[in-house]
Amino acid sequence: PVEGWPVLNQKAWIIILWLAFINTAFAYILYNHALKTITALEMNVILNLSPLGTAIIAWFILDESLALIQILGMVTVVIGVILVQVKGNRKK
Q: Membrane topology type, per the record (predicted)?
């Protein structure tokens, strides 16, 4: 069994801190910049579709397999995004 804290060297701590602070800060800067140029609804669509893009990239580049339930989940997300877009356009 695994117990206690892992022993991390200096390089591991630098990587962890980089991921925690620099990557997170960069993501929020990009997010806020995007909100200045596109609407919140458009940003929400992009955020909802990002797991779909990640799964497709993992399948294509890393040769990850996608189970039927995952594919059905992606289809459900796409249908949900389309429904929100259609309802949003009707209100305008």
A: Multi-pass membrane protein
